[in-house]
Amino acid sequence: MKKIKYYYNTHTLRYEKLITPLRVKLLRIFGFISAALVTSAIIIYLYNNFFPRATDKESELKYEIIKDNYNVLAIKTKMLQQQMADLEKRDNEVYRSIFEANPLSDSARTKLIENKKEIEKVNLLNEDELEFEIAKTLNNIAARVIYQFESYTAIGKMINNQENKLACIPAIQPVSNKQLNRIASGFGMRIHPIYGIAKMHPGLDFTAPQGTPIYATGDGIVTYSGPGAGTGNFVLINHGYGYESKYLHMVRIKARAGQRVKRGEVIGWVGSTGATTGPHCHYEVHINGTPVDPVYFFFNDLTAEQYDRVLKIAATGSAKSFD
Question: Is 129 found in the same domain as 85?
């Protein structure tokens, strides 16, 4: 049974029935619902922040493990990057410099990942971004490893090529000179014995009896074999790599143009043909067409003491000239 409420009306001085308007009822209902919603929101907020669910705890723990693993990987990748940088530096500054090869430019290599504070970066990344960063770093290192491997393959070819180069570079004396007493005229300016004028002497003169064997000082191909004006019978050998050697005043020539010769192979015999005052072998070494002092190319058949002695003989023997 519905309860009826009364109130005392001071104007009429009697009790009257209490009637609540519809507008007031609606406002009361709205106020109640609003208070309930606000209270519910506060309860949910407090629950989510101070009473986390088991699944949330599990996810948070998993994320922390991922961050820890990422930090470990970041340290290892930094070590790998440093090792790669050391290899690349050694490649450019040691290996390639030995073989006179141009160093690889940084632009040719894979660009390095920017140096960042990994811990700060991790705190801003979600799980997918962490995986992406790890993959990106490892791909960078993999690309650098592949490029470095290709570089070492190229260096291996240089090593094989260097063996051929060392066999071709003039490295012995053109005549047997174990006693080191055959060098008569050194490299440089001096008075020509026949013309009587100051003239550049672009080689070394080795005195020897006529018929003494003359040897090729390095592997190569004979590009000329025959007589020349003032030079007498001579042989010119192209050793490749910019090197040439020249042997003048032969009494007789053995090597022929187009022939491939080896270091130590007899190419002719000492004579006095051409403009000369006596039997000897005038020997020259050219690098890219420019005569250089041959005394620096006897390192294969002399000890350090003998080489030092030859340098002194060549420096003081320029006054004794035969051509």
Answer: yes
Do residues 186 and 292 make contact, with C-beta atoms less than 8 angstroms apart?
A: no
Let me know how long the chain is. Answer: 323
pLDDT tens digits for range 17-53: 777 777 877 888 888 888 888 888 888 888 777 766 6
The dihedral of CA 110, 115, 116, 122: what is its sign?
positive
Check whether residue 143 and residue 36 sit in a common domain: no
Please report, to the nearest 10 degrees, the dihedral formed by the alpha carbons of residues 227, 228, 233, 239 taken in order: -100
Name the DSSP class of 238.
E
Instruction: Provide the domain limits for residue 146.
Output: 54-168
Query: What 3-state DSSP class applies to 246?
Result: strand
**16 has which bridge partners?**
7
At 112, the pLDDT band (50, 70, 90 cuts) reads very low
* Count of domains for the chain: 3
282 and 191 share one domain = yes
- Other beta carbons within 10 angstroms of residue 306's beta carbon come to 14
Phi/psi of residue 234, each to 5°?
-145, 165
> What is the CATH classification number for the domain harbouring 304?
2.70.70.10
59: left (phi over 0), alpha (psi -120 to 50) or beta: alpha
Residue 178 in any domain: the answer is no
CB 148 within 8 A of CB 87: yes
In-domain check, residue 160 = yes
Closest CA to 283 of 314, 304, 312: 314
Look-up of token digits 């007589």: 227
Question: Residue 51 belongs to what H/E stretch?
Answer: none
Rounded CA-CA distance 125/129 in Å is 6
Question: Quick one: 202 and 241 in the same domain?
Answer: yes
Flag whether 281 is in a domain. yes
